[in-house]
Design brief:
binds zinc ion; single chain; about 375 residues; binds nicotinamide-adenine-dinucleotide; two-stranded antiparallel ribbon; alpha/beta; globular; about 45% helix
Amino acid sequence: MPHISVKSPEGEYLIGIYPGMYAEQVHPGDEQWQLRNRVEAIKSSRPAAKNVIVTNTTLAPLYGGALFDSYANAALAIIPDGEQYKTLETVAKLYSDFVEAGLDRGGTVIALGGGVVGDVAGFAAATYMRGVQFIQIPTSLLAMVDSSVGGKVGVDLPQGKNLVGAFKQPKTVIIDPQFLRTLPLREWRCGMAEVIKHGLLADETLLQRIEALGEWHDAPPQMDDDQLANMIERAVQVKVDVVQRDPFEKGERAHLNLGHTFAHAIEQVTHYAVPHGEAVAVGLVAATRLSSARGLCDETVPERVEKILEQVGLPRRLGDLDPEEVFAAMATDKKWQGGRSRFVLMRGVGQPVIVQDVPKEQIITILEGLI
Ligand SMILES: NC(=O)c1ccc[n+]([C@@H]2O[C@H](COP(=O)([O-])OP(=O)(O)OC[C@H]3O[C@@H](n4cnc5c(N)ncnc54)[C@H](O)[C@@H]3O)[C@@H](O)[C@H]2O)c1
Ligand SMILES: [Zn+2]
C-alpha cells in the first residue's frame, strides 16, 4: 500500500493509505441507535487509558467502535459536529476528558474525523501538558488531502477563523479511503476543490485523471480502491512537497492559497453560508481568469478549470454577491501585507507565481465577470 514519507522540523513521519483498515467493519445501513449504544458502552468500559480517540457525534457511531477495538488502551472523547464547535470551549472540554482518561505525557491523541476534529484535537494535543503525541485519521476528503498534512492545528475565535493555533506534526497519518463511502456528496465536492487546486499547482496527471472520471451526478463516480487511493496519494503528495520545503509558511507554502483570497472573501460576505470548498472553486476560476487577464497564461487555463469544476458539480460564479463587497472583504485579508494586494496566480498548470499590487479595477472586472 502507498506510503508517503514526510520530513518535518520535528522529524520524519509516514502518511499511510490503507483502504479498508478501519472502515470495512462499518455497515452504513446499521440502525444508528444500536451503534450509538455501542459507543456509550465502550466509553464507560474504559474510564482510564493512555490514549484518547477524539471524534465527533457523527463519526463516533460510524467508526468509533472499529477504531476503539483496534487501540488496546484508548478512551473516546466525542465533540459536537460542526465548525461552530472549533473553539477554545471545545478544547477546554477535551483537556478535562484527557485528565479524566488519565492521558499523560507518554500518551497519544488520535483524531478521527474531518478537518474540524483534526484541528481541535491537534491543538489540544499540542498544548495539553506542553504537548503529547498526535495521530491523524482523517475521514473527509478535505482532511485526507489537505488539513491532516502540514502540521497546522488550531481553533476559531468569535472574531475570525483559525485565529489561534500551533504547529503540531503528527506521529503518523492513516488514511482509509473507504471512510469516504459515508461522506455526504457536498463534502466530497468540497474536498475535490482542494484536490483540483493541488492538481493545478503541481500535478497535471491528477487533473487528467479527474477529467477522465467524467460527469458527477448524484454520487461521486465509481472508483475502485486503487483509483481512489491513487487520487488521494497524488493530491497529498503535492501538499507534502510544498510543506516540506516551507514548513513554517515563509514563502512557497503560500502557493497553497491559490484561489483562497477570493474564497475567504466569499465566505466572509456570506457569513460562511457558502462552504469553504465551494468558495475555493469560485476562487480558482477567479484566480486563473485574473492570471489570463494579466497575460500570465492563456485563456485555456481558466476554461479548463471551469470545465473540471462543472464536471464535479462545483460552483463557478458569485451568484448575487456584490463585487464591491467581495473586494472590500479581500482587502482585509491578513496576507495582504501593508494593504498591498497579493495573489497566487498561474503561468500555466504546475507554475504558480505570487503577484503583488494588482489594481483594484482589474480585480473588480474579474469579479463582475463572475456574476
Ligand atoms: N490544518 C490545516 O492545515 C487545514 C487545512 C484546510 C482546512 N482546515 C480546516 O478543516 C476544516 C474543514 O474540514 P472538513 O471539510 O473535513 O470539515 P468537517 O470536519 O466539518 O467535516 C465535514 C462534515 O463531514 C462529516 N464527515 C467527515 N467524514 C465523514 C465520513 N467519513 N462519513 C460521514 N460524514 C463525515 C463531518 O462530521 C462534518 O459534518 C475547517 O475548519 C478548516 O479551517 C485546516
Ligand atoms: Zn482550502
